[in-house]
Amino acid sequence: MKKYTFPICTFIYLCFFLSAHAQQTMPLTSSSDDAKKLVGSGMMHLVNVEYEEAYDDFDDAVKLDPNFALAHFFKGRLSFGESRTKCFAMAQQAAANTTDAEKLLVSVADTSLNQKGRHEIFAKLHDMYPEDPVLEDFYVMSEPDSTTRVKLLEEQVAKFPNSPEVYNQMGYYYMMARKDNTKAKECFEKYLAMYPDGYNPYDSMGEYYLNTGDKENAKKYYLKSLERCPSSFSSQTKYQELTKDDKK
User: Fold this and answer.
1) Is the pTM of this model over 0.85?
2) How is the chain split into domains, by residue range?
């Protein structure tokens, strides 16, 4: 199990994130404070699309507290096949001894739900804890209608200007939907400035440069991402594709 060592910017971000949880956001029911810290770290990575690090955090949290419902739930969201099914089953079983909010979040694991059904659950959670930045992210990104989702995203940026991940989402919106590369770059640069110790900001900058045809800068930023997380699947795939001709 990994030790809790974070670069200073990540540590500050995590402290802000966890202090918010202590005051006004959804509770985390666990017998282990270290497991709670890991789930907090995992959710930070999750909303920043750093799935590899998020999975490791949730997996370690489960090892510390096998009855931690949300650790099983989030691990399940990042798993596949039988592992996913097992994680969700354990989350639902463990949720019996948690708060109503945690039970509601775990109910998202119901495979019969469509996107609208999942969004309705996140909307209820959002109403319960309107100051929770992670629940806000789930609420916004689960919105089925793309036009409404953009409006909610703009409101999210205004509401949580100190949350780095919202600038990543806005960057992709400008780059992919609006075809406004100037605005997209501004958002990605702000994301990187706010979260320099993460690896997804570099992956997003790589995506921006790849999308604008600047393969050399794309390679540079994908490599920076891999320096921070060698297991990043997205950066690995793109970097290998961009450098395959260099090896001939």
Assistant:
1) yes
2) 163-248
